[in-house]
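Lecture 7, part 2: worked example. A protein chain together with magnesium ion.
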Amino acid sequence: MRREIGEKQNKIQNQSIYLVSQLRSEIPQITGLKTGVEGLDNLFFVSYLDKKGKPHIKPIGGFPSFGIINITGIPDTGKSLMAEQFALTQASLGHPVCFVTVEQPAVFVATGLRNKAASMGIDFEAIEDRLIIIDASTNTVLREDLSSLLDTLAYAIKSYKTKVTIIDSITGLYEAREMMARMIVRSLFTFLKKWRQTALFISQKRSGHEELTAEAAGGYAVGHILDGTIVLFKKEIMSRYDQILYGKEIGNLIRLLRIDGCRLCGHDPRVHVVEILENGIIRIREPLESYLKKIRKEGKGGQNIE
Ligand SMILES: Nc1ncnc2c1ncn2[C@@H]1O[C@H](COP(=O)(O)OP(=O)(O)O)[C@@H](O)[C@H]1O
Ligand SMILES: [Mg+2]
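Predicted complex, written out as structure tokens:
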């Protein structure tokens, strides 16, 4: 269709054009925020050249600051445990944390946090006032009206000066309207960036999705909007082959983790073995490759090595 002269509504958005030199004072320094998960802090790093021009890497010591990281996996892989450990660790370091719960009511989140604090040796009463819970699980408006959720978040971030935001889970914000998933996640991403939060977004994978990929429920690839993705995975040992390969008895589990991209800093790309202890603490062990080598060396195939 021919467009008439003068009809065009486009406007140059010159407020969105920047010279990098103008941004200099605002460019954030990326540091690490302790994850509270043993073995995870060292998997994010920066690289630099020494005086001889030789490349090196240096762990930043946690999740990259101002990063919005997607933690995805099928149910019962330790996503919420990871979020809880991060929240408690940051609160115990003096940083107020905003925890948006979409799945379980606030009191149950508080119970989980209290029990977890006891397992981690953190004095819960000392940090209670740094843990702010927004309960979207019992509030339909927060779950279904994005503007209300953003306004509530802005209010909580401003009032409590939070530095960290956790949403468990973003999937719960687009249940039954998955075509909205990317829009909702992008709005939350842009919003939390503006408020300079370091954030974890938990997303659910359906068990049918490929195991260690970032693809979240619905296949809408919400992870690609965010700064990085951690994929958690569990595999049941059900065949003789797995039994020999992983050195575990049939019926046991092997838990794995992979950092699937991070655009704010370097990261270890290897699959790592994960362990969830009896007291509900999640920790990262050696790379899978080293674990398998150890199994072969010790000739433990077919036996339970735990
Ligand atoms: N308080 C706890 N004590 C012991 N084990 C726990 C505790 N909480 C969770 N777990 C174990 O950790 C697994 C992962 O839990 P969770 O992080 O809630 O999974 P999800 O990935 O679905 O969020 C659970 O299936 C359970 O086996
Ligand atoms: Mg969970």
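The pocket of magnesium ion (ligand 2) is lined by residues 79-80 (CB under 6 Å). Residues 29-231 form a domain with the Rossmann fold fold (CATH 3.40.50.300). Keep this in mind for problem set question 3.
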